[in-house]
Amino acid sequence: MLHTLAALVENHPGVLTRIAGLFARRAYNIDSLSVCQTEDPALSRMTIVVNGDAQVIEQVRNQLNKLVIVHSVTDLTAESVVNRELALIRIKVSSETRSEVLQTIDIFRGRVVDMGRTNLTVELTGDIEKIDGFVKAIRPYGLLELVRTGKIAIMRSDV
Amino acid sequence: MSMNAGKKSLKGATLLLEALEKEGVDVIFGYPGGVLLPLYDALLDSSVRHILVRHEQGGVHAADGYARVTGKVGVCLATSGPGATNLVTGIANAYMDSIPLVVLTGQVVTSLLGTDSFQEADITGITTPITKHSYLVKDAREIPRIVKEAFYLAGTGRPGPVLIDLPKDVLAAEIEPFSTEMNLKGYHVPGKGDSDKIAEVAKALSECSKPVIYAGGGVITAGAGAVLKQLAEKASLPVVTTLMGIGCFPYGHPNLLGMVGLHGAVAANYAVDDCDLLIAVGVRFDDRVTSGLGHLFATRAKIIHIDIDLAEIAKVVRTHIPIVGDARLVLEELLEALAGFQLPQVAEWWDQLRSWKNYYPMRYDKDRLTAQLVIECIGELANEDTMVITDVGQHQMWAAQVYPVVKSRNFATSGGLGTMGFGLPAAMGAQIARPDDMAVLITGDGSFQMCIQELATIAHNKLPVKIVLLNNGVLGMVRQLQKYFSGERYNQIDLQGNPDFIKVAEAYGIRGIRVDSLEQVRSAISEAFEHPGPVLLEFAISPNDDVLPIVPPGKPITEMLGG
């Protein structure tokens, strides 16, 4: 099963290598990984989507926690969370397909951010299922290029 | 900054040595090189003793041996590039056995980093998987903090090697010293265990009828040997140890069943297999113990795992009661908690254990010259403070099986990595660490030649290490594996071309004694022990002797051959 782990890590060179190396060495599979600075510039936040059963995920968490550069690891899978991914997608269009493609983009609430004679580029945010759904829907028209950020996630507030 | 008049400025190298002194470092094992010029210059004015080894691998193993017999952090030093990469085996060795080291490496000047400059190697990158942590120092003002953190990280929690990579310009920089605090928000050292869980263990213990304590290197690291003994005696618990745990429970104690695992004692393996409660302390269910079959290990037992490293819990076997904490503190609390419970009824269990112990003792021929006979004789002539250091191979297993280690930190061996060549430099480091106790190296003709250059260091520093070379002319462990598991198709195990080891020793100015017959064994060992300097004692043993018992690969630990 896919788990989303949020790791607060120190923000300096070599940190990513340590994390990536750990995953490679212990043969854990990273499904996606996104890294960015947090509200504290000394810390980065890594959102790691990893595949494995409960025992594997527990090992991943424990091994990550062992690294001195890792301050905390939270499993956001069971928690009540908001998760999003951003995708930029270039789609082939012709005069015959253009309006259908634009309709599809509209249904998925995407935004056209660039337009060429034979293609257009869409920006789409949403959870992974939504982006997967959109990709499936536009693939028959011609999917030229796809860039996804990987999932980022945040816990919902208590209210 | 050197122009800043009025304030005393210091070189980065001096600042480094001052930081080492502050950590109580009395000796470093090193080898100089181009980028280390500022450091070797500053060393002339420092109280830190420097031992010039003959190969960087010797330096890191010496620091490792120093750490194993004292519990203190060992320190070694090598130059950039090949100097640093020559440390890699030793760092991996220390990492696998959780030995505290601070490894200092020189590095090319920061402006040349990443340009493939002369003697440049990305040593922090190379060693990431085999260090607990590492630093590349970019600013000399970070030196005091980094050194402080490195020693703290290396020596606390589950110990391990920490590497500090020091570019030449950082060592040469003139800076104003200032004090600095550690910044380790992502590092926590577990202390006491969970009291509820410990009470659960006390209850489980009172209800079981076939308990076993499975004790490892973590018991030695935590200094938990004494409390372990109290616990075992109070509740009449049998104890098995791992290779790394040898010495944590005194040899000859009636509760000790011996070493568990692939070359373990039959009684120890049977006990683990048959027990209904396994108290694992400071162990990691290594495949040399479980045969790589975690799911077939102690299947009848409720498993309690006490370890300081959370990541070891449930890594190999399912654990019923995990306790993360310092082994000494946890066992002390368990001992107290036992007061509220009835002690387990183990009389029948002990009948069984004693019958196994009597029926399957460690057996070997006593009417000819064998390694075990030599090792037992060393044990008889040594005292309980003698340090025994081994290399890797058959001699190592024989030493583990029959040498009477009665105290923690008196048996040093490469457990996890199994590094041939570890022994000689480790014995050298051990002897420097504890000059008043005798250091006896037990080695074989294969391992001995892997770091033989350190004979020069031993001779020059007049270290009275007693080198016991069990020479069978072959790579005995591999030979034995080929004999049993490759249908006697022997290949590349014959060490033809071995030198005359006595002459080699004498060439270094070390006394050599060769023993070819059973009758000479005792007198030769006595003579070596009485000699004030280093001695090489060579024993001619048969290449046909095997380490028994042995668990064939892929078989559970109850299926031992030659028990």
How would you characterize the overall build of this protein?
Chain A is α+β, with helices and mostly antiparallel strands and 159 residues long. Chain A is built from 4 helices and 9 strands. Chain A folds into 2 domains: 2-75, Alpha-Beta Plaits (2-Layer Sandwich); 83-155, ACT-like. Chain A, domain 2 (Alpha-Beta Plaits, 2-Layer Sandwich). In chain A, the strands form 2 sheets. In chain A, strands 5, 6, 7, 8 and 9 form a 5-stranded antiparallel beta sheet that branches. Chain A has a 4-stranded antiparallel beta sheet with strand order 2-3-1-4, with helices on one face. In chain A, strand 2 (29-37) and strand 3 form a beta hairpin. Chain A is elongated. By secondary structure, chain B is an alpha/beta fold. Chain B folds into 3 domains: 10-175, Rossmann fold; 195-359, 3-Layer(aba) Sandwich (Rossmann fold); 371-540, Thiamin diphosphate (ThDP)-binding fold, Pyr/PP domains (Rossmann fold, 3-Layer(aba) Sandwich). In chain B, the strands form 4 sheets. Chain B has a 6-stranded parallel beta sheet with strand order 3-2-4-5-7-6, with helices on both faces. A 6-stranded parallel beta sheet of chain B has the order 11-10-9-12-13-14, sandwiched between helices. In chain B, helix 23 links the parallel strand 19 and strand 20 (535-540). The longest helix of chain B is centred in the first third of the chain and has 15 residues, at 56-70. Classes of the chains: A alpha+beta (159), B alpha/beta (563). The interface between A and B is medium-sized, with 20 and 18 residues.
